[in-house]
Amino acid sequence: MNPSLTNRLAQHADLDAIRMLMDASIAELQKPFLNQQQIASSRLIMGLDTQLIDDGTYFIVETQGQLAGCGGWSRRATLYGGDQSPGRDAAPLDPARDPARIRAMYTHPQHTRKGVGRLILLLCEQTARSEGFKKVELMATLAGAKLYAACGYEACEHLSDDRGGVPVPLLRMTKSL
Questions:
Q1: Measuring CA to CA, how many Å separate 170 from each of 32, 45, 62?
Q2: 86 lies in which domain range?
Q3: For the chain, what is the domain count?
Q4: Is 32 exposed, middle or buried (0-12, 13-18, 19+ CB in 10 A)?
Q5: Distance (Å, rounded) from C-alpha 45 to C-alpha 41?
Q6: pLDDT at position 88, please?
Q7: Is 146 among the domain residues?
Q8: What CATH number corresponds to the domain at position 76?
Q9: CA distance 37 to 172
Q10: Closest Cα to residue 147, out of 138, 134, 159?
Q11: Is residue 77 domain-resident?
C-alpha cells in the first residue's frame, strides 16, 4: 500500500468535499466507457447514500491533506445508489446468509492507480468480515470493473440501469472473504 495514504471514517461535515470528488470521478473516469448521455444518467443512479456515514461504514482516503478517494460497505439491502436514487432499502442483512455490500467507491481522477481503491476495498472487507460476513458484492461501473477483478471479485451479472433516463451498463461482482 501507498504509505502516503491515510484513512478515516467520513463525517457529515465531509459531504460537500465527497460530492465534489464523486462528480469529478464520474465526469472523468467514465469518459472512456460511456457517452455524455450515459454519464449524465450515471449521476442520477450513483452517488452517496448518507446512511453509510450514519452507520459508520464509509471511509475517506487522503494524501497530504487532500481527499483522494472514498468508499464504504453496508450491512443493509441496497446494493448501489445515492440518496436521490429510487428503490433504496435499509433492511438489515443477515451475515450468515447475505453478502455485505461494497458501496459508493470513488477515486479522484488525479489519484487513480495509486492504491486508493485497493485501500478502500481492504478496509471494507476487513470490517465486513469482523461483523461476520463471509461474502461481499458490489455493482461495478465499467471504469471500476478492472480494479475489482484485480482484487479478486468475479462478475456474476451484466446489466444496465436506465433509471437516470439512458441505460448505463453495470456489472454485479462478488467475492468470498
A1: 14, 11, 27
A2: 5-134
A3: 1
A4: exposed
A5: 7
A6: 84
A7: no
A8: 3.40.630.30
A9: 22
A10: 138
A11: yes
Do the domain assignments include residue 175? no
What's the whole-model pTM score?
A: 0.95
Q: What letter represents residue 62's amino acid?
A: E
From residue 11, alpha-carbon distances to 74, 76, 123 in Å are 16, 19, 16
| Burial degree of 135 (CB within 10 A; 0-12, 13-18, 19+) | middle
Position 84 scores a pLDDT of 84
**Nearest CA among 170, 128, 171 for reference residue 38:** 170
153 found inside a domain: no
Query: Per residue of the chain (177 residues), what is the pLDDT tens digit?
Result: 788 999 999 999 999 999 999 999 999 999 999 999 999 999 989 989 999 999 999 999 999 999 999 999 999 999 999 988 878 899 999 999 999 999 999 999 999 999 999 999 999 999 999 999 999 999 999 999 999 999 999 999 999 999 999 999 999 999 999
**Are 67 and 21 in contact, with CB atoms under 8 Å apart?**
yes
